[in-house]
C-alpha cells in the first residue's frame, strides 16, 4: 500500500536518489549537477516552510515526491508557485504521481497559493499526460531555453488555478 505524508529532512537521501537519474541521464531536469543529500535537505526544509513537500511511501521506502516552490521572486507573484513531481522508475504508472498532486494541490491552496505552474522540458509524454489529467492547461512553449545533452531544449508551461 502506498501512503502519502509530508516530507522531513530525513527523506533527503531517497529524494536525491530518485531525482539523480533525471539530472544525469535526461533533460527532464535542467540542472546539470545532481544535488546531494545535504542540498536536497535544504530544499525540503525551504519548501516545507513556504509551500509543501510530500512523499509517497511503499514498504517504508520513499518511491516518489512532489513539492511546490516559488514561481518568481517579485512580490505580486507570491500567490503563484511552481510544482514538480518525481516518481521512482520502478513505480511509474501506478497512480503515484496523480495521488501526490491530488494531495499537494489542496495543501498549496490552503497556503494561499492561487496559481500552480509546471515547466515541462520537451519531449515528456508522461509528464504532459499527468498534468493534463490533473486539469493543468498549456500556456505556451518557451523555445530553446535550455542547452543540455548536446541540444537545445524547449519547455512547455502548464498552469492550473487552484
Ligand atoms: C511524470 C510522472 C511523475 C508520472 O508519474 P506516475 O506515477 O507514473 O503517473 P500516474 O500513474 O499517477 O499517472 C496519472 C495519469 O498520467 C498519465 N500518464 C502518466 N504516465 C503516462 C505515460 N507514460 N504515458 C501516457 N500517459 C501517462 C495518465 O493519464 C495517467 O492516468 P492513467 O494511468 O489512469 O491513464 C513520472 O512519469 C515521472 O516521474 N517522470 C519523470 C520525472 C518527470 O518528468 N517529472 C515531471 C517534471 S515536470
What labels would you give this structure?
binds coenzyme A, single chain, 162 residues, 7 strands, 7-stranded mixed beta sheet, alpha+beta, 31% helix, Aminopeptidase
Report what the structure shows.
With 162 residues, this protein is α+β, with helices and mostly antiparallel strands. It has a single domain (2-161), classed as Aminopeptidase, CATH 3.40.630. It contains four helices and seven strands, in the order E-H-H-E-E-E-H-E-H-E-E. It has helices at residues 12-24, 37-50, 96-110, 125-133, and strands spanning 2-6, 52-58, 61-70, 80-87, 115-121, 137-148, 151-161. The chain has a seven-stranded mixed β-sheet with strand order 1-2-3-4-5-7-6, with helices on both faces. Helix 1 crosses helix 2 (37-50). The longest helix has 15 residues, at 96-110. The protein starts with a strand and ends with a strand. The mean pLDDT is 97.
Q: Fill in the CATH topology.
A: Aminopeptidase
Helix vs. strand class: alpha+beta
Rg, rounded, reads 15 Å
Ends: how far apart? 28 Å
How many domains would you count in the coordinates?
1
Count of helices?
4
**Mean pLDDT score:** 97
- Shape category: globular
Question: SSE order in H/E notation?
Answer: EHHEEEHEHEE
Looking at the overall shape, the CATH architecture is 3-Layer(aba) Sandwich
Bound ligands, named by name, code or SMILES: coenzyme A
Number of strands: 7
DSSP helix fraction: 25-40%
Strand order of the largest sheet: 1-2-3-4-5-7-6
Q: Estimate the strand proportion.
A: 35-45%
Would you identify the CATH H-level superfamily?
Answer: Gcn5-related N-acetyltransferase (GNAT)
Low-confidence stretches: none
Reported for the largest beta sheet, the result is: 7 strands, mixed
CATH class: Alpha Beta
